[in-house]
Design a protein that fits this description.
Layout: E1 2-12, E2 17-24, E3 30-35, H1 37-47, H2 57-67, E4 70-81, E5 84-93, E6 96-102, H3 104-114, E7 118-120, H4 133-148, H5 152-160
Parallel strand pairs: 4-7
Antiparallel strand pairs: 1-2, 1-7, 2-3, 4-5, 5-6
Helix pairs in contact: 1-3, 1-5, 2-3
Length: about 170
Amino acid sequence: MVEVTVARLGLDSSTNSYVVILQEKGGSRLLPIWIGQPEAESIAMHINSIKRERPMTHDLCKNLIVGLGGQLRRVQITKVQKSTYFAELHIMRGDVLVQIDARPSDSIAVALRLSAPIFAQESLLTSVEGEDADEAEEHDFEAAKTAEELNAEQLKQYLENLRPEDFGKFNL
């Protein structure tokens, strides 16, 4: 398992689906995962510190874990079968470790809220080709700067208008 971080979030215009790009911590390999709109919005809202009046589903998951005396130790993205990714939440409660099957998108959203590390099976990572790393970092900074200034509705529009080129090049 390799530790990864959320590097980018965007919209794949060819499938009209959202994509979260996980990047190897301290490295350049990537793991793109296509996710649903609610999960993309939840991840984006957390990254951009946008709060809702009432807890959303991933906030509820966080509150349940903490409220029941648990600690999210890590999230593991374990495999892909027939274009479906699988993940596990590793929750420690006392001296008992519970592994819960979950979708990667939900796992990522909960991990971000609980500051838990995210790990991916090494075989799922792919090397980056093309775009210069400095250009990618500069572009990411501009995208993040723009996203921070948006309200929830504007953020939705922003995410819907992102293209694959907006979050770098990768191989599938």
